[in-house]
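We were asked to recover a plausible sequence for a given structure. The inputs and outputs are reproduced exactly as logged, with field labels preserved.

PROBLEM: sequence recovery
POSITIONS: 361
GIVEN STRUCTURE:
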């Protein structure tokens, strides 16, 4: 019962202070939107009830042992099991996932559900996650992420402290046992490894910056999610971003999602107190894979810029073979000091970008 009605209870100032602390911990979580901002539907204010935090894992043919690490890290979170629920989007896995795969959550008493999205593609899986949830925020977790035990506790505190945030994320680091050879290090930011130090970085510019979270471990506000879904209905090129299975390495789906925060008047943030370990598959450190990845990045960046800014003019350095090869020479020698492989990857990137520009003419 609230408030306490025990006989003889004294209402001293100290007691009322204790009551206030208890009330803040117990009260339903509500979030009031800023009156000065317009919503997608044109309205200017709402009060949005946050029941449970929705933690969404979009997966396609996951490594069973690594997915177990992800689920065990969720089960080990410092917050109460009733604080969040886990929604696993099975994106057309060859061997469908079952309730037995989510055993670590069941043992802790955490609400969970598997939803099958038969249309292959990470962007489609995220849209399905948005459709299947109603809370004020989604925490997106990849199937190879191991969250620090206070990840959700810290994230919820940041939501309370920063109503201006539309999305935020933290440090994504390699586990101790996974240490690639030195020439791979320049590629790590392209593989979802992110560490910009111990200072908070907040941004509100409609461009990439260190404040923009990666999809792994990203907290995204419902208004940003709604804007993302609305954009998916407006342009057929939207689903060219993001991976489709294990062979199509298209990217930039994180950027199209996170950039929506700035476009509706909210901010993005890098919060280094949030830490997760990214258990990358070792095959992603191979030269051939990295060349394919960077070629795909080049094409994806062109699609991203087209979606955000409209049809792009073919840059002068892509127009003629002479100008293009001059660009390749400059890109190669400019990055050679980082590693020879990374310099070659810059060439692959520009070949991918040029090819995509020509496709979209």
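RECOVERED SEQUENCE:
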């Amino acid at each position: 019962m609230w408030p306490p009605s025990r006989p003889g209870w004294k209402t001293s100032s100290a007691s009322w202070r204790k009551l206030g602390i208890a009330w803040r911990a117990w009260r339903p979580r509500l979030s009031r939107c800023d009156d000065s901002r317009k919503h997608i539907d044109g309205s200017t204010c709402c009060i949005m009830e946050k029941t449970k935090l929705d933690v969404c894992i979009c997966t396609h043919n996951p490594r069973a042992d690594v997915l177990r690490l992800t689920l065990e890290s969720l089960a080990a979170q410092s917050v109460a099991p009733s604080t969040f629920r886990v929604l696993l989007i099975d994106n057309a896995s060859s061997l469908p996932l079952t309730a037995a795969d989510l055993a670590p959550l069941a043992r802790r008493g955490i609400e969970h559900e598997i939803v099958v999205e038969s249309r292959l593609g990470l962007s489609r899986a995220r849209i399905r996650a948005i459709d299947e949830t109603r809370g004020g925020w989604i925490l997106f977790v990849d199937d190879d992420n191991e969250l620090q035990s206070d990840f959700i506790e810290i994230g919820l505190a940041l939501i309370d402290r920063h109503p201006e945030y539309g999305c935020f994320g933290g440090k994504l680091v390699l586990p101790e046992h996974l240490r690639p050879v030195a020439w791979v290090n320049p590629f790590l930011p392209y593989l979802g490894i992110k560490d910009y130090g111990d200072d908070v970085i907040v941004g509100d510019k409609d461009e990439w910056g260190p404040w923009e979270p990666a999809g792994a471990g990203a907290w995204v506000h419902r208004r940003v999610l709604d804007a993302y879904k609305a954009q998916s209905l407006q342009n057929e090129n939207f689903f060219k971003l993001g991976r489709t299975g294990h062979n199509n390495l298209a990217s930039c789906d994180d950027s199209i999602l996170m950039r929506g925060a700035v476009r509706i008047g909210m901010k993005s943030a890098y919060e280094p107190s949030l830490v997760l370990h990214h258990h990358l598959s070792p095959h992603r450190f191979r030269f051939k894979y990295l060349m394919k990845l960077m070629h795909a990045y080049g094409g994806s960046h062109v699609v991203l810029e087209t979606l955000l800014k409209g049809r792009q003019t073919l840059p002068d350095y892509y127009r003629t073979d002479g100008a293009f090869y001059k660009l390749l020479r400059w890109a190669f020698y400019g990055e050679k000091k980082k590693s020879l492989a990374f310099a070659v990857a810059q060439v692959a990137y520009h070949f991918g970008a040029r090819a995509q520009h020509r496709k979209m003419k």
